[in-house]
Structure formats: structure tokens, C-alpha cells
Amino acid sequence: MTIESIALDGANGVRIEILERSDTTLVIRWVEPGRCHYGEQRWRRRSAHTSGTCAVSRRKIRRGDAVFKPAERPAPSNASAMIAAEVLCALADEV
Question: What InterPro entries is this protein classified in (predicted)?
């Protein structure tokens, strides 16, 4: 499903723009000043393998939580980044 682009401010100055969204995949523009820039990066929904922090809401993510993570190979610079699936569900309800 394509949605109207949603721009978000993430942690540490990261700029995230959701270009497309379905239940299992995202296409994101990820801009991290001084580190990396991905114009159309594919992310997939999965269970978190490790604990971490949501790149959008900054809330804690626990191992096993539903998250979206970069799905590209070789692993990109932001491979450890996660977005909590519930955060995106809440955003979709607002749109």
C-alpha cells in the first residue's frame, strides 16, 4: 500500500520519511547527517533479535517485540536501527 509520505524526526538528528508502507514492508528515506543517506531503503517487519531503542519514538524495544528493520544485503550502515511496529500502526491511524 502506498501512503502519503510521512516525515519524522528520529533520534540523533536522523530524518526518516516513510515513502511506502504495507503490513510487512516499508520503503524509507533515511538521512543521518555525517553518517549515511538512503533514498529508498526497504525495511521488513520481524521480531527484534536484540533489545534496543525505536528510531522514531525513542521508546525501549525488547527482544521479541514486533519491529521493522533494514532488509538490504550487504548490511547497511543503519542495520541495527529498529522502528517499533506499534509506532507505525499509531501513525497510520492518524493519517
Answer: DUF3331 (IPR021769)
